[in-house]
Amino acid sequence: MSNRKWSFGLIALVLIFGYVLIRFFDSTTKVDDLVQRMEHDKTSASPAKHIVLIAQELDNPFWREMEQGADQAADKLGMKIDYMGPIRIDPSEQMRLLEKSIAAKPDAILVQGIGNPEYDQLIGKAVDQGIPVLTVDADEPGSRRLAYVGTDNRKAGEQLGELVVKNEARNGQIGVIIGSEADNQRLRLEGFRSVISAAPGFQIIDVRSSNISRIGAAEQAEAMLKQHPDISTIVGFSALDAAGIVEGVTAAGQEDVSVYGFDDLEVTRKGISEGDIKASVVQQPGEIGAKAVYLLDQWFKGEKLSTPYFIPTNIMDGEHMQAGGSNR
C-alpha cells in the first residue's frame, strides 16, 4: 500500500515537474518571440530625418531664433537639426558649408539664398543626389530649391516706408543702412524706395551697408550724417542696424534724427521704450524655421509643395510696447 502511494506520489511529482517545465519553455519561447519582434520593429523603423540648417552668421540673434524654431518643430516630428554657419558673414563660407553638407548626405538642407550662380549649381547638385533644399530668409529663385520660406521682403520694405511717411509729418531727407547685398536686403530697399519715391517731400539721400554689424551700422550712420547733416530719418534693414544707428546718431551729435529698424532684439525693444528708436518691422524667424521643418515633413510624406511661403511681419513701436507685445 505504501509502495502504491509512493508510486502515485512520484507520478504526480513528475507530472507537476513536466507541467512546470512546459510552462517555462512556453514562457521562454514567448519572451524570445517578443524580443525578436521588438528588434525587428527597431531595425525596420525609419531612422530620424537629418536636416542641416546653414545660417548666414552663426551667432546672429535672428538665426539663433530660427534655429530654435526649427529645433522645436524637429523634436515634435522626430527629426534632427544640425545648425552651422560662418562666424562672420561670408558668402564663400556659406558655399563651402553647403558643399560639405551635401557630401554628408543629410535628408534635407535649409539655406539662405545668396544670389550666386555657383550656389545655384550646388543646390542643383544636392537635388541630383536626392537631397531637397529649401531657402529661408532670402530666396534663390533661379535655383532648383524646393520652396522658399520667409518674409515677403519687398512687402516688408513697403511696410517700413509707409510707417516713415505716416510718422514723419515734417517730411525730409532719409538715409538707409542695408545689412548686406543679399537678395532680402535688396528687396526691402526696392519696396521702401517704391513708397518713398511716391511720397511728396521725402527723398532717399544715401544708402550704405553695415555688413550685418552693429558697429558697422554705427560707423556708417555717423559718416552719413557728417556728409549729409540735413538727414532727418535713418532706417536700418537688418536686425542689428537700428541699435547701431542710434550710436552713430549720438556720435555725430544729431539728437533730432528719427531711427527705424527691423526685428525685435532686446536692444531694439529698449531703444523703442526709451524713445531712441521710433519703430521696427518685426519678422518671425522662429516661425520661419518651424514652418520650413513642417514643410519638409509634408514633402517626406509625398505631399507636393508650392512656393513661396511667406511668414507675416508686424510693427513694434511705443504703442505696441505699452500694450505688452509687438503686434504678433
Automatic annotation (TrEMBL):
- Where does the record place the Periplasmic binding protein domain? 51-304
| Residues annotated as signal peptide | none
Keyword field:
Membrane, Signal, Transmembrane, Transmembrane helix
Q: Which InterPro entries match?
A: Peripla_BP_I (IPR028082), SBP_2_dom (IPR025997)
Q: What are the protein's GO molecular function terms? A: carbohydrate binding
Q: Which residues cross the membrane?
A: 6-25
GO CC terms? cell envelope
Indicate where this protein resides in the cell. Answer: Cell envelope
Quick one: where is this thing mainly located?
other
The domain of life for this entry's organism is Bacteria
Which family would the database say this protein is a member of?
Belongs to the bacterial solute-binding protein 2 family.
Q: Cross-referenced PANTHER family, in alphabetical order?
A: D-ALLOSE-BINDING PERIPLASMIC PROTEIN-RELATED
Q: What is this protein called?
A: Substrate-binding domain-containing protein
